[in-house]
Specification:
The protein has 675 residues and is α/β, with parallel strands linked by helices. It contains 25 helices and 22 strands. Bound molecules: adenosine-5'-diphosphate and magnesium ion. Adenosine-5'-diphosphate binds next to helix 11.
């Protein structure tokens, strides 16, 4: 009898040669085999009739062979076999190519399941080279495995089946309390069903259970291996004043925003420092959440710091918070690299004496010798834009303060934080009401004339536009540089319209002046490099034109697009690209198709490939077999809660009910180190 540790060659149907083929897939033991999860499934279970099968798509049809098989030798290496099947109502003309063995095995009058693309015609239907099995043995949901060379999916499935048939029931690895609390299927069910599901509901349950376990084990490993002693000296912000702030807002918070506020408020009321990630797509309203928490902190007599990645954004936040807190007695100051020395000195002095409740700034705020009287909360906006170094600085500064990081992009570094940084997560999965879809078009530069006319019309309606070019300064081949481009526009396509220019090499003062003029509507069209990428909020802007769009990553394009569609007017995003590459076209197509940032990040991941994105080994993370940290982020969140609970009671995982988990952790991390 085999067990999980048995060499694969002891499984029925595996000889030396097969074992070598499996080795190429990294499969050496029975356990490796069972963890080689199907990459997809085909539904042969509900085999349909031709009538219900979708035209031109792959489907399974149940039909009887009603003709003899006719052989047509087309040329030397090509023999066709033609025959007819009937589903009782409709004749299906089937063609097989060179498949003498299959053709010879077909029996007149016998029922089969045919799987393939069905082309419906006036007189019936046809299928070209379908997969084909006996109706009895072939029915079911078929697992599709990643094939390698001569080891095809079917062969792998057969071996997996043999192994499962010979193995006794699997011993449960998760404690009963976790199974119950998170409503998870038992291991034995999950392993068997993930390979050979009886139905899609069971498959879903099985996958969920396995993903949960994998992520839980990962988190347990990371949290215990890297587990640092937690500070318990954070200021306790005891009274919750956030409801008071909600009344001051000119809008009603979404329930996602309210939930996030409640989570933060609960966190900061205890002596353990909050360490929370607030994740929400562009425009989901993260700023208001931050404001509610800051308000509560200030009303309790503590100070907060809010850091933004750019001066521009810091200044905008400063203005927003002044508006938010007008008349509340809460004082706000702005500290950036370009704040005049005298003002800076004054602000620092007031911070030290506790006369200012909120300091807003760039990372200079935290790096410099700024002293707070009683800093309780540090919020970092657009977290992903901060470098690793700044983050390290931040961490040093505030071991005992509550921290909230806000991010619009579920990028790996952010995810890394969930894992390394011991972060809790709040997700804004809801948009404020009244948000309109931004119409997105992908065109080539022959459309420029029309685009400029379109922008002119928008400006005449009193609206504003952004034009983004990838680089400053001339040169760089065909790339539009913001400088040249703005000049050309002013002389040509947009003559007579007040055009502003914004780029990273400008002095902060000038940048600010330009941005302010745009926000006030004096500048109608803002030509810029990607400095506007994050956070900027000008509600009157309705057109976003992006030149050389293929140069940008999808997430970046999504961020840029999020600059429009903030008011209640219809908004447009025009992506201009002359790239001939099919990959570029596909990427830009994603922007047209999706408006949800998480979806786009997903596509980004798919198109770049997970290796690229995660570089998991580079980070010393174990390779995951079934979970995907991006798409399973909700499960990851659940697992985090489960892991915390387990570790709270049994940090060493030494209780008998945690034996299975402990073994799994050791196994996962041993392998990770080996990689
Ligand atoms: P982001 O999450 O991208 O930082 P912001 O905080 O800048 O988004 O919010 C985008 C816009 O939506 C702002 O103008 C803000 O005032 C507005 N807003 C935020 N929450 C709501 C809400 N619940 N109802 C209506 N408007 C809201
Ligand atoms: Mg923001």
């Amino acid at each position: 009898m085999i067990n999980l540790e048995s060499n694969i060659q002891y499984v029925k149907g595996v000889g030396d040669k097969r074992a070598q083929q499996f080795a190429k897939l990294g499969i050496y033991t029975v356990k490796d085999l069972l963890c080689f999860y199907p990459r997809n499934y085909q539904n042969w279970a509900g085999a349909m009739t031709v009538q219900c099968a979708p035209d031109g798509e792959k489907a399974a049809v149940r039909a009887k062979l009603v003709s003899t098989v006719a052989e047509h030798r087309v040329r030397r290496n090509m023999t066709l076999y033609k025959c007819d099947f009937s589903d009782g109502q409709c004749i299906i003309h089937v063609t097989l190519f060179n498949n003498k063995y299959l053709a010879g095995s077909l029996q007149l009058g016998r029922e089969y399941i045919l799987f393939g693309k069905i082309e419906k015609t006036l007189t019936g239907a046809s299928m070209s080279a379908p997969e084909l099995e006996n109706a009895q043995s072939g029915a079911g949901i078929h697992p599709i495995y990643r094939a390698s060379g001569t080891l095809n999916s079917k062969a792998i499935a057969r071996v997996v089946k043999n192994a499962l048939d010979d193995l006794p029931a699997f011993e449960e690895t998760l404690p009963g309390s976790v199974l119950n609390q998170y409503n998870l299927a038992p291991l034995d069910f999950a392993v068997r069903q993930v390979h050979f599901p009886t139905d899609f509901g069971s498959l879903e349950k099985a996958r969920h259970r396995l993903i949960f376990e994998e992520l839980l084990v990962l988190l347990l490993g990371l949290l215990t291996l890297r587990g640092k002693k937690k500070s318990d000296a954070a200021p306790r912000v005891k009274t919750d004043y956030s409801a008071e702030f909600l009344k001051l807002l000119p809008f009603e918070m979404t329930s996602a925003q309210k939930r996030a506020v409640a989570q933060c408020v609960a966190d900061i009321s205890c002596r353990f420092p909050m360490n929370r990630l607030l994740q929400g797509d562009v425009g989901s309203g993260k700023t208001a959440v931050a404001a509610a928490v800051i308000y509560s902190v200030a009303k309790n007599g503590f100070q907060s710091a809010l850091m933004a990645p750019t001066e521009l954004l810091a200044r905008q936040h400063y203005e927003t918070f002044q508006r938010f807190f007008a008349g509340t007695g809460i004082t706000v100051c702005l500290l950036t690299g370009s704040t005049p020395a005298k003002e800076k000195r004054e602000a620092k002095d007031k911070l030290m004496h506790g006369e200012i409740s909120l300091a807003i700034g760039t990372h200079a705020l935290i790096q410099n010798d700024v002293e707070f009287k009683n800093l309780a909360l540090v919020i970092t906006d657009e977290q992903h834009r901060f470098g690793v170094k700044q983050r390290a600085n931040l961490a040093e500064k505030g071991t005992d303060v509550h921290t909230l990081v806000m991010s619009a992009t579920p990028i790996p570094r952010t995810l890394g934080l969930i894992i390394y940084g011991d972060l809790d997560i709040s997700v804004l999965d809801e948009y404020p009401p009244g948000r309109r879809e931004i119409r997105t078009d992908v065109v080539n530069s022959s459309y420029h004339k029309r685009i400029y006319k379109f922008i002119r019309a928008a400006v005449e309606r009193g609206e504003q536009a952004y034009i983004v070019c990838p680089l400053v300064d001339e040169g760089q081949g065909e790339l539009h540089s913001a400088n040249e481009y703005a000049a050309a526009l002013a002389a040509g396509g947009l003559r007579g319209i007040n055009i502003g220019l914004l780029h990273g090499k400008m002095k902060p003062k000038d940048k600010e002046k330009t941005m302010r003029a745009f926000a006030q509507g004096d500048i109608k069209v803002l030509v810029s490099t990607t400095v506007i990428e994050v956070g900027i909020d000008v509600r009157n802007a309705t057109v976003m034109l992006i030149e050389n769009a293929e140069r940008f990553g999808l997430s970046q394009l999504h961020q840029l697009r999020g600059r429009v569609g903030r008011g209640d007017r219809a908004s447009y995003c025009i992506l201009v690209s002359d790239s001939k590459s099919a990959a570029a076209a596909e990427r830009l197509g994603v922007m047209k198709k999706y408006s949800d940032g998480f979806k786009i990040a997903d596509e980004d991941l798919k198109q770049r490939g997970p290796g690229d994105f995660f570089g998991s080994r580079q980070h010393g993370l174990p390779q995951l077999k079934i979970a995907d940290m991006l798409s399973d982020i909700e499960t990851l969140r659940l697992c985090r809660a489960a892991a915390d609970e387990i570790l709270k009671r049994d940090f060493a995982l030494s209780l008998p009910q945690h034996r299975g988990l402990k073994a799994a952790v050791l196994n996962m991390f041993q392998n990770a180190v080996g990689n």
